[in-house]
Design a protein that fits this description.
Length: about 300
């Protein structure tokens, strides 16, 4: 008696399963940081470093990005169950289900949720960058242009995915990823450069000024963007070389990694560890607001 044996690609299946496990780990970290960010925003005194002016916006950001991340994560978990349980006897086996990711509406919804989450996350980066640069047009205009380009590419990706096309064959996804990573890298360079310039200005005014705070915040910015950037570059290389297994591994976790980096920034903002726009303007006297990394804000 003969039995049907589905085609297998064990390497691809392992990458998909490992990617889901990795996604679970990062989602757990993301969940904990979301709770911490929410508590920090709710507990912050309303007179502290003008955080009250942006409290509602930041709370909305934390809420909406968490909801979108949870929807995307939950649907990916469900499809993982479908691959090896519900549809395990489908023609082509699990490998075909992994390769034909967009043939199922559940995955399209997960993709849309992930892309919308990234829109919000990049918008937060832009806002922080513009504040530090005091909304300088030479920074705002090109960064907004890149952001709009990213959204346009994102929409094209989602439109193509809605037709059931193989996700790993959607070439515009590569352009979208490059612009998104480029935004993060440029943001990091702009912010750290501005912080070091501000540090130099304070040293000119006060020769004995302790500039360690600027160094610490610059390091925070680099560290927050570092893990995501490295992971995203690996994603781009894998996608460009059509390494479906490695692409799947990176794809399932990348939004959570980016969200974690953003939440670190929000938590520090809520604790008074941020730069206000008064620190970005030329001055000949000590600023009236604090650039505090220790949690207490002096006035």
């Amino acid at each position: 008696m003969s039995s049907y044996t589905p085609q297998t690609n064990l390497s691809l299946e392992r990458f998909r399963l490992d990617g889901m496990i990795l996604s679970c780990v990062f989602y757990g970290i993301y969940f904990v940081l979301t709770v911490q960010a929410w508590n920090a925003l709710m507990q912050r005194p309303r007179h502290g470093e003008k955080i009250a002016d942006h409290r509602c916006a930041l709370l909305f950001y934390v809420f909406i990005t968490f909801v979108l991340a949870t929807i995307s994560f939950g649907l990916n978990v469900r499809y993982t169950e479908m691959i090896w349980i519900d549809l395990r006897d489908a023609p082509g086996g699990p490998s075909a289900l992994i390769e034909n990711y967009m043939s199922y509406r559940i995955n399209f919804i997960a993709l849309v949720g992930g892309h919308l989450q990234e829109w919000f996350m990049q918008l937060l980066l832009l806002h922080r960058c513009f504040v530090i640069w005091d909304w300088s047009k030479r920074v705002v205009v090109p960064m907004i242009s890149l952001y709009v380009t990213m959204i346009a590419f994102s929409i094209i990706v989602m439109v193509e995915a809605s037709t059931g096309a193989k996700f790993y064959n959607i070439i515009i996804e590569l352009a979208y990823l490059c612009v998104e990573v480029g935004l993060t890298v440029i943001y990091t360079i702009l912010v750290t450069n501005r912080l070091f310039a501000m540090r130099g200005r304070m040293r000119e005014i006060i020769p004995q000024y302790d500039s360690s705070t600027y160094n610490t915040i610059a390091l925070m910015v680099v560290e927050s963007a570092g893990l995501y950037t490295i992971f995203a570059i690996a994603f781009i290389v894998a996608f460009g070389m059509h390494l479906i297994g490695l692409t799947s591994l990176c794809f399932l976790a990348i939004c959570k990694i980016q969200g974690i980096a953003q939440l670190f920034i929000i938590i520090r903002v809520a604790q008074g560890r941020a730069v206000s726009n008064q620190w970005s303007r030329p001055t000949t006297a000590m600023p009236t607001t604090s650039l505090a990394f220790a949690g207490n804000v002096s006035h």
